[in-house]
Design a protein that fits this description.
Length: 382
């Protein structure tokens, strides 16, 4: 196992200070290791996740080589040649487990932002004190965007949030964490070959969730009540003005509709399984409130906005992969983790084999199936 830095390197180096897992502690489990602390319904801090992964490296006895930065993987006659900062390795098979969030996605219009406005990504943001005084424009309203908008607004800074497509979820539903419902009802267990539109499923933004001691919901209504100004998707920059699309009402309505359909799925599952009595009463939530007059433009030279945080998603980095298995959009060509090159595999990508593929507790089922395929591949070569 090769790790470019230390064990749990990305959790040490590429997370903001206040971040917590979106999944409750009882879902923090890996083969042979699971959470056994006093707060199963809490959410791990970055330090706790780091310690958990470190402990797993020891418990599993995995032969991890740290400080091994992979610079190239090439196909050779008998397998692959892996070039690292510690030397070369020849092998018959390679499993790519570098994840889907190696680089923040920043749209090209960032180049048109005046130099007087500081620009950050979730990798470079640590806390509000690291930003210049003044207003902040957060771009993106998925999990990262809503969390950073709330933190910055709470620090006393005026925050504007640019909202595009998003997934709205309550933190708790009928007395249980919403992710309990996702797991118990089978939604997260849905296999990739059962998903109606797999390409879209793999590109869905992360749900608007936050892990707090209060198990609080963090959606656009909460942010608006805190004073965060909501605007539409950032569409262009013209004459140093950020131009935002209209149609927030439609964007909000679509997210609300999808949430309602998911909650209906949970209710139907509870009725069909005779679980109604142990859950609280069915719930429905207020629609996302549309601002009376959402701004369509913002002067970036006025001084109103001093910093922009691009919470516009992440993408994998396969610059080191010298095998023609990456498409024009930078995504790996694979079928359930079996990559389009003999002996090459992947784990930890969105909806790899199930909807829960990118979550810590969801990796085990995927890993067992992918490794079964790998073992069969190696057996044939002997």
């Amino acid at each position: 196992m090769l790790e470019r830095g230390e064990v749990a390197n990305s959790w040490r180096r590429e997370r903001w200070d206040s971040l917590r897992l979106l999944t409750p502690n009882w879902q923090s489990r890996l083969p042979g290791l699971w959470y056994e602390g006093p707060d199963p319904d809490g959410y791990m801090t970055t330090a706790e996740v780091t310690e958990f992964i470190e402990r797993y490296a020891k418990v599993s006895g995995a032969p991890v080589r740290t400080g091994a930065d992979v610079t190239s993987v090439k196909r050779i006659s008998d397998g692959y040649l892996v070039t690292t900062s510690l030397g070369e390795i020849r092998c018959q098979a390679v499993v790519i487990a570098s994840g889907a969030c190696n680089r923040p996605v920043v749209p090209g219009l960032c180049d048109a932002v005046p130099p007087s406005v500081e620009q950050l990504t979730p990798f470079s943001y640590r806390d509000p004190a690291g930003l210049p005084d003044g207003g902040v424009l957060v771009v993106g309203a998925s999990a990262t965007g809503v969390q950073l908008a709330a933190e910055l607004q709470s620090s006393g800074r005026p925050v504007t949030l640019s909202v595009g497509e998003h997934v709205r979820l309550p933190r708790l539903y009928r007395g249980r964490d919403v992710l309990w419902w996702m797991d118990a009802s089978g939604v997260w267990g849905e296999r990739y070959d059962e998903v109606e539109d797999l390409t879209r499923a793999r590109r869905l933004p992360s749900p608007q969730l936050v892990g707090t001691a209060e198990r609080a919901t963090l959606d656009l209504n909460v942010l608006a009540s805190m004073g965060v100004e909501l605007v539409g998707r950032w569409a262009a920059v013209r004459d140093d003005r950020a131009l935002f699309s209209g149609g927030l009402r439609n964007v909000f309505s679509l997210a609300d509709l999808k949430m309602e359909r998911l909650l209906d799925t949970f209710d139907e599952w509870a009725r069909a399984r005779g679980r109604e009595a142990e859950a609280g009463p069915s719930e429905r939530f207020a629609p996302t409130r549309v601002p009376d007059s959402a701004r369509l433009q913002l002067d970036l030279r006025s001084g109103e906005i001093r910093a922009i945080v691009w919470a516009t998603g992440f993408r994998p980095d396969y610059g080191w992969l010298d095998v023609p298995v990456v498409d024009a959009k930078g995504q790996l060509n694979h079928d359930g983790g079996v990559v389009d090159s003999p002996g090459l595999y992947a784990l930890g990508l969105p909806v790899l084999r199930r909807r829960k593929s990118t979550f810590m507790y969801g990796i085990e089922d995927d890993a067992r199936e992918v490794i079964d395929h790998l073992v069969r591949y190696l057996a044939v070569r002997r």
